[in-house]
Amino acid sequence: MSDPKDLKLIVTTLASPPFSRTFSAIQLHDELPVLQLLQLISDIMAVIDDGNPQSLHRGVDMRNEDPQDSVARITGFLQLLKWKDAGDVDTLSQKLTEGHRPTILRVLHFLLKDFNIHKKRAYLAPFLASVDVPAEFSMDEVTADLMRHVEDLQEQFKDIHKAVDGIRGSGTNAAILKKEIQQLEDEKQQVLSRISKIRKRVEEIPYHEQWLEAAKNLRTEQQNEALIAERIKEQRNQTHQVENKYNTALQALKDIRSAAANASPDLLFSKMEEDNKMNKYLATENLPKVVLELVFLKVMIRFSSSKLSQQLQDAKQHIQQLKKVLSEPAVSERDLTEHEKEIKQLNEDIAKLAEKRLAKTTQGDDKLGLFRQQAAIIARKKEGTAARLAAINEEINNLAAELAKKKEVEKAQGEEFKRYVSELRAKSTIYKKKKAEISAITAEFGILQRTEEVLTSRQKTMEDSLTALEKRHGVAGFHVAQETLEKVSERKAEIDEVKGRTLEEISGIIQKLTNNINEKKSFLSPVIQELRTMRSQVQELETEHGEKKRLYDATMVGLDSEAIQLEQEVKLYRQDILNDQSRYHYLNMQIGLADITNERIMQEMKVYIGGDEAIEQTQKARGFKTYRELYTRKLAEQENLGKSLREQQKEVKAKYEPNVKQLAMFQDVKKLLALKAAQNAAMLKGDRRKEEKVGQVTKDRLVL
After folding, report:
1. How far are the Cα atoms of 88, 416, 427, 555, 657 from residue 420, in angstroms, in the given order?
2. Is there a contact between 249 and 523 (Cβ–Cβ < 8 Å)?
3. Is-contact 83 110, C-beta < 8 A?
């Protein structure tokens, strides 16, 4: 395993409780010894299996455990946890025995990736394991009753465990809801405090009730304006859809007229028959299949996940999608045609893949099956042809519409060019006039801006004096409130006038759209009825799927435990077979040795009997008559040799002490001689020195 993400997951999980062990990715990949990695695996399995009081992994020291037992214990636990390569146990055992580091890291990643799931599975396995009862005892009534009682208890355990999981999950949701409620209460208190502060500030403003009433009316009008704008948008979308439908119908009418002008009645009748057959096929065979496929796909998507949280998330996403669809404009015929083209293209791809797969498979002897396959191929080809025909028709219609547009443009090109020139001249004249007006307005704007500044300064002076006058009379802020009320009333009058004009325009549009909506309702009512029927069927399928899913989960848990038990039994039987085979080969070897010994005995008997020339020649060649004679002679020789050696031993023992004393005496004599030699050597050296001194003195005297 060389993926850095997997190593990072191992390091992160080991650093967190309940392990709290700090390793780096480099240490795990390169530095840690294999024995330490195996010990780490054993410790992780002990944590996973801590719910089992009879766990074999608790407190195990890999240094004191036999390697074969360690590997067997690890592989057995991995089979219990649904190791993905559990079928190849021998290869896994061999790699763990050899200390294959990538395999060990894969095992670590497997144990830590789904730690909680493994812990739950290890907890459930002892309770849901099937009881191994020999066949000769299973026929007993008491034993059979006990087995049934055990199965009933296991079923009760499953139900209770599911209920407990549900309660735990609901407890978690309740805690989350309590937390959210508390947050909402806090936010509510904050909002109330803000409202109270704002209310106090508003109450200090003069004529605040009138201001509040005006603000309320303004807010109501803004909401009404937003609703009206939304309705206008919807009505425009509906108008656009109606225009598209009208253009499509007009194009179809043109096509029919052109076809009627260039064809005879027989051709028209044959074409209508072909179209009728094709439409009948699409309506009776192709369309129901597509609807069923979509319904089935929807059901499969809805039940793709077994977890409640995932289902809730999917439901939220589905609701958001539905809201998005409702907020979008209605689907046009063109969009539906594009979706149908995509579905047909997918059906064609599926048919091609099925044909390729069918071409690769070998043909069987069953002719009926062959005919069915051929019929299926023909049906798929028919569907593909229908899809291609629809796509070609759609392309023809688009090309025809585009051609008609281009023809209209070509016909009106000259007239449009003249009209464009005349419009350009008129616009040029208008542009010059507007430019002169803008220059005059700009000059006037400068004058008016200066006038406004002067008037603003005067107004400010007058307002200050008016404010002072109001304060003296005790009615401060009166003129400001009056001006504001006048502005609000003027604004309201303008809005009412605009509303009156807008409502008149909208009423006519609404009448048209109401008629269109009624037509749509009458058209969609059978489809809606069919949709309701489909929804009821989907609900029934959901209920049935839930029951089947629960039954499937319970059955799978039992089957998993039985499979683990059977795998362990098979492993024991294989070990017994290996032991029996080794015992068989050992006994065969012993039998062979016994046969050889028996053959030699028979040869000895023949030698004693005599009368065989070949045996006599063999005796002469090897130098003895029988092995008994040979071994007797060798025994006699060895006995004589033993006697002589014992006599030598006695002689050595008798002479040992005198010889030891004599050896000590010789060593003492050797030491004395060595001392005498040293003394003599020293004496000789002293005499030589005296002679040298005497000679030297004499020599000196002669010199003098």
Report:
1. 84, 6, 10, 81, 151
2. no
3. yes
**Tens digits of per-residue pLDDT, 522-537?**
777 777 777 778 888 8
> With contact defined as beta carbons under 8 Å apart, do 402 and 356 qualify?
no
Other Cβ atoms within 10 Å of 488 Cβ, number: 17
CA nearest neighbour of 477 among 465, 467, 462? 467
Segment 551-577, tens digit of pLDDT:
888 888 888 888 888 888 888 888 899
CA distance 212 to 488: 12
* Band (703; pLDDT cuts 50, 70, 90): very low
- Establish whether the linkage from the previous residue to 18 is cis, with ω within 30° of 0: yes
Per-residue model confidence as pLDDT tens digits over 484-515: 767 767 777 777 676 666 666 666 677 777 77
Q: Read out DSSP for 535-588?
A: HHHHHHHHHHHHHHHHHHHHHHHHHHHHHHHHHHHHHHHHHHHHHHHHHHHHHH
Whole-number Cα distances in Å, 358 to 353, 355, 370, 374, 382:
8, 5, 10, 10, 17
pLDDT band per the 50, 70, 90 thresholds, residue 299: very low
DSSP state of 362: P
Looking at 170-174, 596-600, 640-644, which range is the least confident one? 170-174
H runs (alpha helix) in 412-477: 413-473
Task: Return d(Cα 442, Cα 48) in angstroms, integer.
Answer: 86
- For the chain, the structural domain boundaries read 4-128, 225-416, 417-476, 477-609, 627-704
Q: What is the token pair recorded at 491?
A: 């604004």
In sequence order, the 6+-apart residues with CB closer than 8 A to the CB of 596 are none
Distance CA 372, CA 379 (A): 10
Q: What one-character-per-residue DSSP string does 247-287 give?
A: HHHHHHHHHHHHHHHTS-HHHHHHHHHHHHHHHHHIIIIIH
207: region left, alpha or beta (phi > 0 left; psi from -120 to 50 alpha): left
Give me the CATH code for the 4-128 domain, please: 1.10.418.70
The model's pTM is: 0.29
Q: Mark residue 612 as left, alpha or beta (left: phi above 0; alpha: psi -120 to 50; beta: remaining).
A: beta
Kindly give, in sequence order, each residue whose CB lies less than 8 Å from that of residue 9, ignoring residues fewer than 6 positions away: 109, 112, 113
- Nearest CA to 40 among 93, 100, 111, 91? 111
Residues 6+ apart with CB under 8 A from 305: 311, 314
Task: Tell me the two tokens of residue 118.
Answer: 């493994």
Nearest to 557 by CA among 147, 151, 86, 129: 129
**Alpha helices (H) in 204-261, listed in sequence order:** 208-261
Instruction: List all residues 6 or more positions away from 358 whose beta carbon is below 8 Å from its beta carbon.
Output: 373, 377
Maximum distance among all alpha carbons in the chain? Answer: 179
Alpha carbon distance 613, 572 (integer Å) = 59
DSSP one-letter code for 28: I
